[in-house]
Each structure stands twice: as structure tokens, then as C-alpha cells.
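Issue: ligand-bound run for 2-oxoglutaric acid - logging full I/O for the record.

Environment: standard queue, default settings, no custom constraints.

Inputs:
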Amino acid sequence: MQLFILHSCKTNRLLQSLRFKHLYAFSHLWFKTTYECADESFLRPPMDSIPQPFKFLLQGASGIWEQDDKLSQRIIEILLRSLEDGLDHKKYYESEFKNGHGYLRIINYTPLKCLDDEVEGLGMHTDMSCVTIVYQDQIGGLQVKSREGKWMDINPCEETLVVNIGDMLQAWSNEKFRSSEHRVILKKPVNRFSLAFFWCFEDEKVIFAPDEVVGEGYARI
Ligand SMILES: O=C(O)CCC(=O)C(=O)O
Ligand SMILES: [Fe+2]
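Outputs:
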């Protein structure tokens, strides 16, 4: 499979409900301003409640934005190691992933005044990224679809981030990794806040699964 990327990851507008309000920050330098300039309907938990690894990204102490190697490199390294025994993950990180970039979506799901039933805050989708690192507050509502097609709750857990595999990594790994189908269901009449950091290949990269990753005897998809 070859994928020519015209745009970085975008969630289709049609997937977003009226409850979904988002802001973007394209670099850590913009994050603070974006976060602070949100209008009053944009309720966000205090920075103190956001887990340290994510704050690390946001504050630009290290992380993906500065092409430093911390969290994104660790995640990609772990994923590459799990692909094939003996795969030279350092070589592939350097040649394929090093020039990637990330952008952050800051999301506020505003509650209905009276919520009798569940409401889709964000419809089923896959992310176009290589990996997405998600922080959700304590309200919950993130769900992922299992192989059997059942929706599973990803319950919030203190100091825990969720990592989604996205379409770009699915293509690069010749579908050895599966881009996860997920959605957000609003179940409580309260504000929900989340941060999603999409880490993508550089723009206009032609994604081509290396032979070693495809593996002998396997067809390139
Ligand atoms: O709000 C969430 O927990 C997930 C958001 C998400 O999946 C997205 O922005 O692509
Ligand atoms: Fe998503």
C-alpha cells in the first residue's frame, strides 16, 4: 500500500457533534496561548491534573515537537521491536520516523442540559496519524472497537495515557498494526475534556512498507 499524504490528520467534520469544540496547537509554543485563549465555554481541568508525560510534551521540555526522542521515540521503538524479531528499529527510526511532526487537538465536549441517554460526541473514526497520544479526563467515554466489532470502554485511569495506532502506521507496517476504530460517547451531563496529540510522518511523504517489514512470503498490501 502506498499512501501519499496531502494533509495531516483531520477528523471529518461530519463525525463531530455539536458537543465537540476543539482548538489546535501546532507547536508547544502555541499551546499555552491556545489553551489560555479558549473562550469561557471551554472548560478545562487544571494543568496539575494532566499526567506528567503529556505535560512534558506540552511544555516542550522535550518531546516530539522538538524532534527530541522521548515519548514518541519510545512508543515507535516499542512498536518496531514488536514487529519483527531482530528488526533494526534504530535504523528505521532514523530513516523513516525522525522527521515526523505532531500537532495537538484540545477538545472540549459540552454537556447537554438534560442528558437522558447516551450521545455520540465524536463518531467512529480512525486517526490518520502514525500514533496518537490521548489524555482524557475522569469523565470517560472513549471507546475502541474490538476485532469482533464490539465497543469497549477505555476507562480513564490516573497517570495513564492512551496510545492509538493510526492509518499512517498501518500503511507503513503493511497492516501488521491496525489503525484503531474509536469514538467518544457522552454519558454524563458534564463537561468532558481531552487532549489528543497526533504524531504524523512529514508532509508529502510517500509511505512504503520496507521489504523487511512486509516479510518474506507476504504480499505487499
Ligand atoms: O476525545 C477523545 O478522547 C478522543 C479524541 C479523538 O479520538 C480525536 O480527536 O481523534
Ligand atoms: Fe481519534
